[in-house]
Amino acid sequence: MNKVDKMFKDLIKDILDNGVWSENARPRYKSDGAVANSIYLTDVKLKFDLSKGEFPITQLRPIAIKSGIKEMLWIWQKKTSDLGVAHDMGIKWWDDWAMEDNTIGQRYGATVNRYDILDGVIKKLVQNPFNRRCIMNLWQYADLSETAPLDPCAYEMVFDVRKKDGVMYLDARLSQRSSDVLIAGHLNMMQYVALQMMVAKHFGWQVGTFSWNVMNVHIYDRFIPQAKELLNREPKDTKPRLILNVPDGTNYKDIKAEDFELVDYEPIKPQLKFDIAL
Predict the structure, then answer these.
(1) Which of 44, 60, 239, 243 has the highest CB neighbour number within 10 Å of its CB?
(2) Alpha-carbon torsion 197, 199, 200, 204, what sign?
């Protein structure tokens, strides 16, 4: 078992052994509308050294990496919350939050577009890579009060650059208010590593460390059997790597999902089924 899979198993076990139960839970299960309670830990931090091959994806079950990258591109490259654009890219899991205008409201990509968030960070990195002010934040209160869909879970990305032995490394931290760890945990991590790789390629830098900070990491009550199944699985000791097959200096706007390649990834099957909580 590799380091990342061990970290994921340790987190699941920690939640089951030491977590507390939610009260007055907001989510409801899609299948029957029942309250979706969860067991959770607060203030969880994981750190990975991408330069040493510690890519944060689990092999305990298959993760839909290409679909996840397409969703990330929809938000940060297409800069829209239009579900028509999402459908054209093969993304349909946001339909449960659709509004009358066929968007998810002033959220995610619409917020990126309104505040020119990613291009603003690119400009700062051009002016001074070591400026310590490269923050991308989707938690904009004006936007949250404008429309009603689900508030962002993964809401902030911070970049920092360091030079070591003549090599420029782009480090990053993803902050989330909440993470349904069995379904979205590694999906969110690998999505934002992909974004980190895109920004690094834009400048011809290497990726360095990636940190995942979450205030509430939870497992829903109906997912506990799946959590125990994952703990019983023994993945191979391979080290999956995500490769971005474009030349250094490629503009992040020109990168496609097909440019990413996941190698040495051998997830355990069968895939698990989950009763999604909305």
Answers:
(1) 60
(2) positive
